[in-house]
Write a structure and sequence with these properties.
Layout lengths: L4 E10 L2 E11 L4 E5 L6 H9 L6 E6 L2 E2 L5 H7 L1 E4 L11 H12 L14 H13 L15 H14 L4 E5 L7 H14 L4 E5 L3 H7 L2 E6 L2 E6 L1 H6 L1 H6 L8
Parallel strand pairs: 3-8, 3-9, 6-7, 7-8
Antiparallel strand pairs: 1-2, 1-4, 4-5, 9-10
């Protein structure tokens, strides 16, 4: 299967620190591909390069067969590459429905109609409410974003990302800060997206990773040490020693 998102020999350094060290990664269409590793392994730096927030020092990034290495974030988003959960673009004083309607408006390139409220325009309301329904937020559409729980806020951010009609979702620790029930709810939502979107997932919750991922790549000290199925990653001795805290005698 041809990959939809590909990193080719990426390098990124901050002074003497090599945050990504000759990293090559291929994400296949429709899969959930998890990226795991210890704190400081370079996961967020790698995803920032894929999304366009950081320029690599060397190497290339390809999306749907196109070299996007030099493209800014906005152009990558227009091509269908969306990142969530790193920097929130939610307006706290707007309702949940209003936030999603604004995201729909941005996708449809109607920003010149800035004097009209997106949440009061029928052409944006209908898709916004469909997305809220899909993300289990239909009953919270009229609530200001500031009044949502942390888990609901994460759901709203995901709804706004989906409003852009992406092909690939880059999800940066969607379970961070969530309680047990919120984590279960978010995992269920991501499971419902499997097959509909290609997902590259950074996550520290190994139960979530192993239950959701089709393949897993492991970063250690900026290097990609292995990519494989969940069963292959569980059995890999270097992963068990470096990340899962085990050794061959366990």
């Amino acid at each position: 299967m041809s990959c939809i998102l590909e990193a080719l020999d990426l390098e990124k350094s901050f002074g003497a620190l090599r945050a990504t060290d000759h990293v090559s990664l291929a994400v296949e269409p429709g899969e959930v591909h998890a990226l795991i590793g210890p704190n400081g392994a370079g996961k967020t730096t790698l995803v920032a390069q894929l999304s366009g927030e950081l320029a690599p020092d060397r190497g290339a990034i390809r999306f749907a067969g196109r070299d996007i290495t030099a493209l800014p974030v906005a152009q990558r988003a227009r091509l269908g590459l969306a990142r969530t959960f790193q920097i929130s673009s939610v307006f706290d004083t707007f309702s949940a429905a209003g936030n999603v309607a604004l995201a729909v408006q941005a996708k449809q390139a109607h920003s010149f109609r800035f004097w009209k409220r997106a949440d009061r325009m029928a052409e944006f309301q209908a898709p916004a409410h469909r997305l809220l329904q899909d993300l289990a937020l239909a009953s919270r559409g009229g609530v200001p974003a500031a009044g949502l729980s942390h888990g609901e806020h994460r759901q709203l951010e995901l709804a706004m990302a989906l409003a852009g009609e992406p092909t690939v979702l880059l999800l940066d620790e969607p379970m961070a800060g969530l309680g047990i029930e919120e984590t279960r709810a978010m995992a269920a939502l991501l499971r419902s997206l499997k097959g509909r979107y290609t997902i590259l997932l950074i996550e520290h919750d190994m139960d979530v990773v192993f239950s959701l991922a089709d393949r897993i790549s492991v970063l250690v000290a900026g290097r990609l040490i292995v990519t494989g199925t969940p069963n292959e990653i569980r059995a890999h001795p270097e992963v068990r020693a470096a990340y899962l805290g085990e050794d061959d005698d366990v």
